[in-house]
Design goal:
Two copies of one chain form a homodimer.
Chain A (H helix, E strand, L loop, with lengths): L2 H10 L2 H11 L4 H10 L6 H13 L3 E6 L7 E6 L1 H25 L1
Antiparallel strand pairs in A: 1-2
Helix pairs in contact in A: 2-5
Chain A binds a DNA duplex through α1 and α4.
Chain lengths: 107, 107
DNA sequence: TACAATACCTTGTATCGCAAGGTACTGAAA
DNA sequence: TTTCAGTACCTTGCGATACAAGGTATTGTA
């Protein structure tokens, strides 16, 4: 059976939220994000992350600045914009709502 | 902006889990499910639900039986199979993991 | 007999995660 | 100088899925 499939489905919708939660605390570039989410037991692939970051940038929720690296090419460090912070607040509310829903259905 | 889109994305992955949580407590037919999830603040469309139920049935997680209705055509009442119960346990674990991830990222 | 209500299902579209592959920059080794 | 490994960013093609819209079938009533 494909519980893995459903499980991955469950994580899908959370990705955007988790990335914004992460960037709320500190600017990160792509590999930072992948690594830190991995530490939080949330697996993300490059092919998933880059388009997602581009989309959030295009929607005005993220901004980035180039920073030199001591080893390798420069990196795009992403941060939340003011709109991004507001969106994050709304997603916080959505998360609470979903938690309440699950709680309600579990009781 | 489309926080609504992201919000809907967040709910998407949870649908299967919520439906199985619901059926764990009592057999339901489609309109039951729509109504009860609505009470739990989880909106589902018919066009989403029917294919999903068919898929879970095909995967052996759900079974159904026809029951007469006092007003209208007979209904398909769905229940969790043994495999479905096991899958639900795994999804419970996935939910806990996601909760921990969000908690971890929020702190 | 016609119609409204109820219930089940299908088709087409858009979105999105993911695997795979590609481009570009940097620094060190040959 | 040239080559190569490492790092970083990005794109393409595919499959899965939610949703809107539309369709079929059964029931009871006017």
């Amino acid at each position: 059976m494909n519980t893995d499939n459903t499980k991955s489905q469950m994580r899908k919708g959370m990705l955007e939220y988790c990335i914004m939660l992460l960037l709320h605390r500190q600017p990160c570039y792509a590999n930072d994000i992948i690594q830190r989410l991995h530490e939080a037991e949330m697996i993300v692939m490059e092919g998933t992350l880059y388009p997602l970051l581009s989309r959030l940038k295009r929607d005005g929720l993220l901004a980035y600045e180039w920073r030199e690296s001591t080893q390798g090419p420069p990196r795009k460090y992403y941060t939340l914009t003011a709109d991004g912070q507001e969106a994050l607040s709304q997603l916080d509310a959505s998360w609470e709502e979903i938690s309440r829903t699950v709680q309600f259905l579990k009781q």
